[in-house]
Amino acid sequence: MTDLADRLHADADAARALADWCAKTLNSAETAFDGECEIAKRLGAHSRADGSATFGFWTPELLDHRVSDGDVFLEVLSPVESLDLTRAHQDVTFARVYVPVARYEAHTFCVVDGMIAGSRDRVGDFYSLVWRDAHGEWHRILDPLAMSLPFGAFAPAELYDLDAMQAARKDLDYYAELREAAGGKPHKFDPPCNILQIHVPTATAGGTLAALTRQFERLAERFASDLPLEPSDQLYLGYDAVQLLPVEPTTVYETGPDFWQEDPKGIDYTTVSLTRPDTTNWGYDVVIAGMATVNPVLLETGRPDELVDLAAVLHNFPKKRKMLIVDVVFGHSDNQGLGALNPHFFAGPNMYGQNLDYRNPAVRAILLEMQRRKVNFGADGVRVDGAQDFKWYDPATQTMQHDDEYLHQMALLPQEVAGTAFRPWFVFEDGRPWPQEDWELSSTYRAVTENMRDIDPDVFQWGPLTFAHNTPFIYGFWLSKYWRIREMLEVGSNWISGTANHDTLRRGTQVSPKLNINTRLGDTKMDILDKAYDNPAVSMLTYGAFPGVPMDFLNATSRASWGFIRNQDDKYGVKVVAEEAISLTWQVDEYSYSVPQNFRRLKEIGFETREDLLRFFEFLPALVEVTAYDLNVIPDLLNSVEPKLAGPSYFTAQELKHIARAWMDDMHEYCNVSNSVSSLDPVQTEYMFELRKYRRANRWLRNNLGPKDHFDYMQPIDGRTVFTCLRHAPDGKQTFIIAHMEGGETGDFDPLRLPIPGLDGFGWNLRLRTPSIGSEYIGGPITLRDSMALMFERDPAAS
Question: Out of the domains of life, which is the source (predicted)?
């Protein structure tokens, strides 16, 4: 007998009671889905103050394999010696106990006394469900609803004390205020004025949620003390909300090593080689399992409390509390998800991996429960990735149908934190009929908002200039998108606006530099890309003219690099890097490459200079295409190049995979915002900060343009695109913006003398100018050039 066996005691009666309750719930519920929703709340692991814990699993695979009750157990694993979650690698011996379970059809339950639940200060017991086949082989069923996964979604979960985590929140007063203001009803979060989008691993030098929390704590202290704001401070300030790219567990290394590798010593003990998860990912390669908790790669301490801490520091921000928005990905699973979930979760392959079976009542209920638990970390808003991918197959019509009912259920899901019931604000990314070939022309970007107008008028979607395929550095872009801009002005009040986000910036780095590039944006490709996605004239329109809610991407406003960052691929890693190779032209110059800490892995392989790597990248994409990505042929062709390519002495398939991994890891480090702090332009960051403050002080700008408002481009075009916009506030105040988007200069003219209805008369004052316009200009004739813009204000009451 082990100490663990002495400590744990199975409560068979309580487990049987849960199974009986499950049967009654399913048999008495109005629909199977209603019943599964109730049961989903009991799934996963739940610790109790008395030291007991309940466990629930949805296990249809046990029915598929006809596994009897006597071969199914809860596996509890407890470290015999100290387990430090901050160590890069350690070999730890775990004591193991198998606990009998109670089942009803596809549901399995267990109740155990004496369990240790993890907390901020201690590591708890680990668990999974296991079953034994006719050959005596053991199979493990992981908990998809786990709330702590220190070693990722493909390892046993940790029992976690969520009640203690919630009770220790530092934003309890925030929720008390919401509860009091709601007057006994669930609080409904309104849309924010603007949003800062953040990728946690590249947002700070530390690359964790804890590091990001410290950043906002520092900003809060400086802001509360009215200390001068440095450019690096201004990047994060002036926003109502912070939206994180997905923080769920993602894929793992395809060919290993696993973060949890066991060396069994027998039934009672097992030795596990533990590696701290260290994958790099942009966040969207999810496996669905573990969606309720936090990716351990983002946790400095290995404790999910770090997400609560970030929510609290935002909720307590001085002078103006900030919202936290989480980005959830339930529209697909990477193929690796097949190894983490039972087959009943999936409905077949798609371009990303696997479709989910939304029509299965249990799957539907579990996905919603995952969402509920994630939001309860402290999110005030939810952004739903790829909502056009939530589909089900209709055999009657033999077509895929959009599951709008499921999207409704997502938006109406009730939440409760610290005794406060609430409903988050919702944003959907939905470009249907994407991926239909004409989607850029035929998508309205309003399918969800129109379907949900009567249910929740505050539901938002990403607008057309926010969706992926936008390249504002190609000549003709702004006139070609003018019809979309007109839509924004007329119906964009429930759209997210802005051209720079994780998707648009990534697409920009994949554009061929041989296209008709707007060279007026900068002297180099890097300058052009940076200014295109942090453009002062575009920002003037976004914040001073366009309806909706503006969103900025931190990597764009800091002029840091960005791209498709994922180092887990083995089979297609070389192909992915070949597709990303063009970003070397857009984001890395000779000087940047030469900096000692940049691209150190590629330099070690033999690509000592940028020109060495560029020459290799000129061959690789072409060979990937002409060989149809044949890794047996590509190395031979690379070895035959004359003069010889830099890099390894001899190319092999394995060496190419090594190069691909090095590129991804080096680019991940290169994209970190901390690398750009020293080169920030204080004039640009101050200008952007002032724009955001203006928008927050004039929230009426979120509304669609009214009958007296004006938006057009100056005619004749004469080789340039210059937009003009006149808007009227409800109190009679007027805002006039003129923005030079692209092309040649205008020649000398007075913007306030243009023949625009409502513009004539006196009383106009210059409110904001883009950085390239000198401070001596306060009005009158001016020559506008690319990316210049002016904002004037007039208050009839004051005049």
Answer: Bacteria
